[in-house]
Specification:
Layout: H1 3-21, H2 26-38, E1 43-46, E2 53-58, H3 66-74, E3 84-88, E4 98-101, E5 104-107, E6 112-116, E7 125-131, H4 141-153, H5 155-158, E8 161-168, E9 177-178, H6 182-190, H7 193-197
Parallel strand pairs: 2-3, 7-8
Antiparallel strand pairs: 1-2, 4-5, 6-7, 6-9
Helix pairs in contact: 1-2
């Protein structure tokens, strides 16, 4: 096991009680600073503080970093962290939620998309997501849309989206799909759905 992984869990065990009960952003900030010593692509999400807390280790949908996240989670000393649930990569939670970043409130249930594909790269899937509340050029979309996909799809599936393009809503036609239809659409796309349609 790489020394950096051992060092992280040694530090975590030493501070687990305070990390488990610390409110607000203090605990995630401390943990992320240590995670970035392992790999700058790593981060975390924490459940609410309490007697038992979940730590989700994430690579923010950067697929090349997924192996180190899995290795780190597998190295957790579970007997010493009985009050913790350690999860590698964000799980899928569906799209029934709203999010607010820097004053931009977005209801994920109301977002719709068109698929973006290219004959030159038929295995890649991009999305044009129709947005309201701020112009598509607003830089907040570059943070909000990936976060919405990670939350809804789970990190592994979200990493399969090659690019995201915000566009002014509503969609220009009736071919757009709701975002909660995206998991089924990705499965259809991966099974060669576009080729079958052609």
């Amino acid at each position: 096991m790489p020394a950096k992984l051992t060092d992280f869990w040694t530090w975590f065990v030493e501070h687990e009680a305070s990390l488990r009960t610390a409110p607000g952003g203090a605990a995630p900030d401390q943990i992320e600073a240590k995670l970035r010593e392992i790999d700058p692509r790593l981060g975390c999400e924490l459940s609410e503080p309490g007697e038992r807390r979940e730590l989700i280790l994430t690579a923010w949908s950067q697929a090349p970093a997924f192996p180190i996240v899995r290795e780190l989670a597998a190295a957790a000393p579970k007997e010493q962290l009985a009050n913790w649930r350690i999860t590698a990569l964000k799980p899928a939670r569906g799209f029934r939620f709203a999010i607010n970043i820097d004053g931009l409130q977005v209801d994920a249930t109301k977002l719709m998309f068109h698929a973006l594909t290219s004959p030159q790269a038929p295995a890649l899937l991009g999305l044009r997501i129709y947005v309201t509340g701020a112009p598509p050029t607003d830089e907040r979309w570059s943070r909000i849309l990936p976060l919405i996909l990670e939350t809804g799809l789970g990190e592994e599936l979200a990493a399969q989206i090659s690019n995201l393009q915000p566009a002014a809503g509503p969609p220009p036609d009736d071919q757009a799909l709701r975002l909660d239809e995206l998991p089924e659409f990705i499965e259809w796309f991966r099974s060669g759905g576009l080729n079958q349609k052609a």
